[in-house]
Design goal:
The protein has one domain (22-284): NADP-dependent oxidoreductase domain (TIM Barrel, Alpha-Beta Barrel), CATH 3.20.20.100. 39% of the residues lie in helices and 16% in strands. The protein has 10 helices and 11 strands. The strands form 3 sheets. The chain has a 7-stranded parallel β-sheet with strand order 3-4-5-8-9-10-11. The chain starts with 11 loop residues before the first strand and ends with a helix. The model has no long low-confidence stretch (mean pLDDT 96).
Length: 285
């Protein structure tokens, strides 16, 4: 599509110091069935969404073994392999899926090792560029779970370690064991509970991957006003705000529709004024 803005408009970010990607990624949770369970209702459309993301300059895709489960990783490989040289695929382990919409932590070392090796097979990779612990397991000492990722890194199965759904203290605990190159927490203009973690990532040049980046933002008046003034959607304003919130934020909006993928990526070219960004910050702070 002529004139379609692409992910490069967001600029780039270095993940781990040696992986440079465009700062508008793609979250591959939604290329699955209802409840993030089973295959997508329209496999061709889901594959078209993945291809469209890459066509529009996305070179960072986030997934997890629990999406489907296993469906998202398999579909990524079926659609995009052999991968473009600059494509970074990040995945996660540490959640079991007993049924649709159900998520159970499992941070046992034996499970994490099995999960990582399964991801390697499904993604057809010799090494996972970024492997993230999906969620702390209250039944397992956090250091044991993170330590398993350190072992896998030492074995060459993963390149960099990230963590997800963590507090500041859990980030600090993980950093005592290994360099942490990314944090993935729920964060958007309507949910700023991870503000302290975002600020910490900003200070220490750690990539912050906000999940649910556009959720519950449709009732925020400053977003509505900015969307009207720019002639774009509220979700695009939410993504543009995230890009402006910190240079360490790497949004990963997801969709199973190629049209929605293009709309999300177009947000990379939207420049909010200081007044617009501050109005959003003030109403949600």
């Amino acid at each position: 599509m002529a004139g379609q803005p692409d992910a490069s408009a967001a600029g780039t970010i270095d993940v781990g110091g040696d992986l440079t990607v465009n700062r508008m990624g793609f979250g591959a949770m939604r290329v699955t069935g209802q409840g993030i369970w089973g295959p997508p209702p329209d496999r061709d459309q889901a594959q078209a969404a993945l291809r469209r993301a890459v066509e529009l300059g996305v070179n960072f895709i986030d997934t997890a073994d629990s999406y489907g489960p296993e469906v998202s990783e398999t579909l990524i490989a079926d659609t995009l392999y052999p991968y473009p040289d600059d494509l970074v695929i990040a995945t996660k382990g540490g959640l079991l899926r007993p049924g649709p919409g159900r998520w159970t932590p499992d941070g046992r070392p034996e499970h994490l090792r099995e999960a990582c090796e399964g991801s390697l097979r499904r993604l057809r990779l010799d090494q996972i560029p970024l492997y993230q612990l999906h969620r702390p397991d209250p039944k397992v000492p956090y250091a044991e779970s993170v330590g398993t990722l350190v072992d896998l890194k030492n074995e060459g199965k993963i390149r960099h370690i990230g963590i997800s759904n963590v507090t500041e203290s859990q980030l600090r605990e993980a950093q005592q064991l290994t360099p942490v190159v990314s944090v993935q927490n729920r964060y958007n203009p309507a949910d700023r509970s991870s503000d302290p973690v975002v600020d910490l990532c900003d200070q220490e040049a750690i990539a912050f991957l906000p999940w649910a980046p556009i959720q519950d933002t449709d009732r925020l008046v400053p977003l509505l006003n900015a969307a009207r003034d720019h002639g774009v959607s509220i979700r695009q304003i939410a993504l543009a705000w995230l890009l402006g919130r910190s240079a360490q934020i790497l949004p990963i909006p997801g969709s199973g529709s190629p049209e929605h993928v293009a709309e999300n990526i177009a947000a990379a070219s939207i420049q909010l004024s200081s007044a617009e960004a501050n109005a959003i910050l003030d109403v949600t702070g």
